[in-house]
Amino acid sequence: MSGKSGDSILALLAGAAIGVGIGILFAPDKGSKTREKIKDSLDDLKDQAKSKFGSFEEEAKEKFSQSKDELKETVDNLLSKSSYKAEEAISFLEEKLAELKKQNAKLQK
Questions:
Q1: Rounded Cα–Cα distance for residues 105 and 88 (Å)
Q2: Number of H helices, E strands in the chain
């Protein structure tokens, strides 16, 4: 996880734990009601953690997708440039071959 997301989740968990602890200490309700409140609080915490993780997961997927697209574009550009260089090299070699054929024709007369 990134530092920012990890810190947010840690702060959320710490806040929930403190809230549950204070709630238990000052609970005016019966034990069964207190346990139900704690369970509800933990369920809420679990849902919040899932939401945070879900948003983190979406962000990571988006960044990976962007990186993948950028890499593909870079490779395509490199191949395109290489193709032009190859064409230049082939043209140069064809010119040299034509010159050699002319020289060879003169020598064979």
A1: 26
A2: 2, 0
Task: List the structure tokens of 106.
Answer: 């003169």
Q: How far is CA 24 from CA 6, 37, 44, 56, 84, in A?
A: 27, 9, 16, 32, 74
Six token digits for residue 25: 């200490």
Q: Return the biggest CA–CA distance within the chain.
A: 117
- How confident is residue 18, by pLDDT bands cut at 50, 70 and 90? confident
Handedness of CA 48, 53, 57, 60 (dihedral sign): positive
Cα 52 to Cα 6: distance, rounded to the nearest angstrom? 10
Contact 15, 41 (CB under 8 A): no
- pLDDT grade for 59, boundaries at 50, 70 and 90: confident
d(CA 40, CA 45): 9
Residue 29 phi/psi, 5-degree rounding, is -85, 170
